[in-house]
Amino acid sequence: MENDIIKSYIKELQNGSHKAFNVIYDMYADKLYGFLLAHTKSPQISEDIVQETFLKLWINRKSISVEGSLQSLLFTISRHKMIDSFRSQINKVEFELYIDYIDEKSFEDDGIESKLFYDDFLKALKLSKKLLTEGQLEIFERNKEKGESIEEIASSLQISEQTVKNQLTTAMKKIRSQLSKKSILFLIIFEIIVVR
After folding, report:
1. What is the DSSP-derived secondary structure letter of residue 76?
2. Cβ distance 160 to 150 under 8 Å?
């Protein structure tokens, strides 16, 4: 019964019904907001992403499947928007450049929250890096933070490129594992800024 009601709202939405859009918004906005707030820890970012999610729904209303799950679609859009939000805030591999940029920026409330979250991420990353051997740490920092190539590192350290690759792979696994224990978002940030 509920599915039939949602399907009828989707059909109305496809035809441009503002009333159907408002009903759908009322049904899902709070759920999305709660999900986003739990992950971003920022009310402002969460509100923005909810608005962007429903804007995308409206723009693409004609291509929405009546048979698919509307809730799944909305949560998928929100997840992508959340990752895009982090990507736009953290767009440098060089951590120090990012921090310098943040320090020089005048903050609004959401900027401060973003910096605090990023600071927490950096602390977690620093702790994760303590699990690495000396060799793994050097290779990780030179490749992922300083941007040196596998070939450059191998030549500089006078070891084979395969050894560099193996050490880097092991380092990445250790760091990913540790970050995922702290927060799935830390792992997402790590993937965005380091594994690109």
Report:
1. H
2. no
